[in-house]
Write a structure and sequence with these properties.
This protein has 144 residues and is mostly helical. The chain is 85% helix and 0% strand. The protein has 2 domains: 42 residues; 85 residues, YheA-like fold (Up-down Bundle), CATH 1.20.1500.
Amino acid sequence: MPGAPPPGVRCCFFLKNHFLFYKRSVFLHCCVMREILDKANDLGLLIRETDIYRRFRDITEELENEPGIKGKLDNYYRSAEDLKKREDLGDIIEKYEIEEFEEMSSAIAENELIVRYLSAKNEYIKLLTDIQKSVREDDFTGDE
C-alpha cells in the first residue's frame, strides 16, 4: 500500500510510548516509595520522642547491665517456648516440669526490674500496635 508506514513503524511507536510510560511509572513508583520511607522515618523519630519509648529503652539498658537478671528472663522465655512447642506437638509435659516453670514464673514476678521491663515492653508494643491499626484503618477509610 503506497504511503503506508514501513512494517514495524507502528510497533516501534508503540514500544517507544510503552517504554516512556514504563519509565514514568517507575519514576513515580520511586517517588512514592521515597515519600513513604521519608514518612516512616518521621514516624520513627516521633516514636523515639515518646515517654513510652524512652522508658522502654532505659529499662532495657538497665536489664542489659544486670546479666544475672537478664539470664533469668532469657531462661524463662526459652522454657516457655520449649514447653509451648512440646505441647503443640502433643508431648506429655511432666508434673515436675510444670512445677519448675511455675517456680521460675514466681521468681520472675518477684523481680522488680523484670516487672518494670515487662510493663514497659507491653506499653511499647501497645503503642506500635495502635500505630499499625491506625495505618490499616486509614487504608480502608481513605483518612489521612
